[in-house]
Write a structure and sequence with these properties.
Elements: E1 3-8, H1 16-30, E2 34-39, H2 54-57, H3 66-75, E3 78-84, H4 92-100, H5 102-109, E4 119-125, H6 134-147, E5 150-157, H7 170-188
Parallel strand pairs: 1-2, 1-3, 3-4, 4-5
Bound molecules: flavin mononucleotide.
């Protein structure tokens, strides 16, 4: 079984990130994968407290909805992070979950606990025609590498100035579907 986990960092239920992540996950599913999607803005996820307890056994002291996300991320063959660009970075919802993955970073880096190979991808949308994606890409690459997943394709959508922008652009939807399909074929072979 190939498992693809999607993290949505937008608070818009039917916005660009949600729609594009949905397209990517559906095409991954069509290609044979099992998919799980987490809409982080609607979950109980507290910020990392930097207590460093996870350095001891790789588990987080905070008991909230991240418990299920940790499990899914550890089992995932592929991870897709979708986020709107907020002030030239990822959204706060995405960043809170990313920081909580310090526990998974600790497993890899401090506790030397390897995971199976995994692939990562990003879907980022910004309203400005010249939206700046570099910060989010750099931080999300560090996140994916930190949890033990190899970063890959990045879909950057600039000029997405309304929640339904992506829904009205078949070319953008097609790129999201390709991203999902490519992820699965990179895992299981073409
Ligand atoms: C707090 C906030 C900050 C934003 N900052 C930027 C920005 O720096 N650059 C940009 O291009 N768009 C910015 N936007 C616009 C969103 O990135 C854009 O509307 C995006 O497509 C929303 O994605 P969503 O529909 O998935 O929520 C900002 C929006 C909000 C609410």
């Amino acid at each position: 079984m190939t498992l693809v986990v999607g993290l949505n960092g937008s608070p818009r239920r039917n916005g660009n990130s949600a729609r594009l992540l949905e397209e990517a996950l559906r095409s991954a599913q069509d290609a044979g994968a099992t998919v799980i999607r987490y809409d982080l803005a609607f979950m109980d996820v507290s910020p990392c407290k930097a207590c460093e307890d996870c350095f001891v056994d790789g588990s987080c002291v905070i008991r909230d909805d991240m418990g299920a996300v940790y499990e899914a991320l550890e089992e995932a063959d592929a991870v897709i992070v979708a986020s709107p660009i907020y002030f030239s970075g990822m959204s706060s919802y995405a960043k809170i979950a990313v920081d909580r993955c310090q526990a998974l970073w600790a497993r890899r880096t401090i506790l030397k606990s390897a995971r199976k190979p995994g692939s990562g991808a990003m879907i980022l949308t910004g309203a400005q025609p010249n939206a700046k994606f570099d910060n989010a890409v750099s931080e999300l690459r560090a996140f994916l590498i930190g949890i033990g997943v190899t970063p890959g394709e990045v879909l950057k959508v600039a000029g997405a100035d309304g929640p339904s922008y992506s829904a009205g652009h078949p070319d953008v939807l097609a790129q999201a579907r390709k991203l999902g399909r490519d992820l699965v074929s990179s895992i299981s072979g073409p």
